[in-house]
Write a structure and sequence with these properties.
This protein is mostly helical. The chain has helices spanning about 15-50, 50-70, 75-80, 85-120, 125-130, 135-150, 155-175, 180-205, 215-240, 240-250, 250-285, 290-325, 335-360, 365-385, 390-405, 405-415, 420-445, 450-470, 475-510. The protein contains 19 helices and no strands. The longest helix is centred in the middle third of the chain and has 37 residues, at about 290-325.
Length: about 500
């Protein structure tokens, strides 16, 4: 392997504010493009494959996600939380990930027959052994991602995500048209993580060395093990329906719910991924002992998150029936589930931001307790409600996740002095504006049949009302966002002008 490198990240010398703004911009563009590509490929595959095909993959997701959490063990966040991580820290994490990833794949390879028996699906045996390669491949590039994450290399991560998604999406579509059924989804998944890993090695200036010393990883273990348990609880929380529906209902039911969850998660990822990419590094660097400054940074990020998240996700609730009816009509059973899931989806990026703030304060135990308690409550509640139907289970899942935001706010009050009243002033106006706008758009179009016309009218009415009302009310975050975009356009024009001028001077000299 290559020798260690101390190359500086490409943004060296920029202020925290500049890096945060650039990270949010690139994060937003990246997640928007990624989800657009994901939507295009997803629509093609959904119309080509069956509910059972998606159900076969849905019941396995929890296993490789849990294994992936164990392999990563919270070290990405632990490295980002360090003020000045060294080469030895990244190298220890690299070898830990590879060794644990190899051991976990061996265990899951041996456990594949038991998993197939649990779901009464013999075809899961070869599928599971192939799909579980996912997290082992990821382990080879995990330390490189940790380097890029902690150095706010959002632009490079954006290029990686879009390229890997484009190539793997084309592979999945080609295999689906070749009649490969659920194997098309499995190969698409493996192609995505393989390309992602290779490109992380290309873009990251850091390289591992053969000197294997796991002591730096062990020194971070006191922080990272709590994040590991928290991430495990989060994965169990996110994938509870895949397990329970696959076990107590059918693979088809798991596939129908999985489709609704897929579109909700894509919408959430567009916003939450943008926040996740910069929140913890920004909050960690803003925490220089001045709690007031940290609170100000957090509140500004909170307002921006709500400003974007509520209209986007509540808007998905508004158009869910039309969206499914127009694009994937054979999945019509997913529409009401999607509408309900997007209600919590609107709050999900807010929860992500609170969680990152708690981590940035070094309180990983708080995250651990929060995540484990809500995970236990959700599993117990859903098991008790399994006979009441999928919709009742979904409403319970959404309700308890939203209610838990109050617990996160209680911790924000303790850690950075953010009062409930101030948090409400940052969150509720955007929620009420968005909810009211969606209600008006629904009422104005309720007499129309589900279809393209109704969906288009809903979107147009909602956008015009939301932006117009916020502008008339003098919302500062809207005006700052518009000013920032204008500033970037002016700078871009100036840079292009300078480039043309320099090329002209070069030709004159020749």
């Amino acid at each position: 392997m290559a020798e260690a490198t101390d190359a500086l990240p490409p943004h060296e010398g920029e202020s925290l504010k500049q890096r945060t703004a650039k990270g949010l911009l690139w994060g937003g563009l990246s997640n928007g493009m990624v989800q657009l590509l994901n939507a295009v490929f997803g629509l093609i595959l959904l119309n080509r494959l069956s509910q059972e095909d998606y159900g076969m993959m849905a019941v396995l997701v929890v296993f490789y996600n849990v294994a992936g959490c164990i392999q990563e063990s919270g070290f990405t966040a632990a490295l980002a939380n360090k003020k000045a991580p060294r080469h030895e820290d990244y190298n220890a994490v690299f070898w830990f990930d590879v060794l644990v990833g190899t051991a976990l794949y061996a265990v899951l390879f041996a456990a594949a027959p038991a998993i197939a028996r649990f779901y009464h699906e013999p075809q899961l045996l070869p599928l599971a052994r192939f799909v579980f390669l996912n997290f082992w491949i990821t382990s080879i590039g995990a330390a490189h991602y940790a380097y890029m994450f902690s150095h706010l290399m959002v632009k490079q991560n954006s290029i990686i995500n879009m390229t890997a998604l484009l190539v793997s999406g084309l592979v999945g579509v080609a295999l689906a048209f070749a009649g490969m059924a659920y194997w098309a989804l499995a190969v698409q998944n493996i192609a995505y993580v393989t390309l992602t890993m290779l490109m992380r090695w290309y873009f990251s200036p850091w390289r591992p060395t053969w000197h294997i010393d796991l002591r730096p990883a062990w020194q971070m273990w006191g922080f990272s093990w709590k994040l590991l348990v928290q991430n495990l609880a989060l994965q169990l929380n996110n994938n509870v329906f895949g397990v329970l529906l696959g076990r107590f209902y059918t693979a088809r039911a798991a596939g129908i719910f999985g489709n609704a969850r897929k579109w909700n998660d894509m919408a959430v990822a567009t916003i939450g991924g943008m926040v996740q990419g910069v929140a913890q590094p920004t909050l960690t660097q803003a925490d220089n002992g001045d709690v007031g400054r940290l609170r100000g940074v957090f509140r500004k990020m909170l307002r921006f998150t709500c400003f974007v998240s509520f209209p986007c996700l509540l808007g998905m609730t508004l158009i869910s029936e039309d969206f499914i009816a127009c694009l994937i009509p054979k999945w019509h059973e997913s529409a009401p589930l999607l509408a309900v899931l997007c209600v919590f989806g609107a709050f999900s990026p807010v929860v992500t931001l609170y969680s990152n703030m708690v981590i940035s304060r070094g309180r990983s135990m708080t995250n651990l307790v929060n995540s484990v308690v809500i995970c236990v409550l959700i599993w117990v509640g859903l098991i008790l409600l399994r006979r009441q139907g999928v919709m009742a289970m979904t409403w319970f899942y959404v309700g308890i996740n939203i209610a838990w935001l109050g617990v996160w706010q209680w911790w924000a009050r303790r850690l950075i002095g953010l009062r409930f009243r101030h948090a409400a002033l940052d969150i509720l106006p955007f929620f009420l504006f968005a909810a009211g706008v969606m209600a008006v758009a629904w009422w104005l179009t309720s007499s129309l049949e589900a279809g393209w016309l109704r969906m288009g009218l809903k979107i147009a009415i909602a956008v015009l009302l939301y932006v117009g009302l916020l502008w008339l009310s003098g919302a500062k975050i809207l005006r700052e966002s518009v000013a920032y975009v204008r500033e970037k356009r002016v700078k871009s024009r100036e840079e292009r002008g300078k480039s043309r001028e320099e090329r002209g001077k070069s030709r004159d000299k020749e």
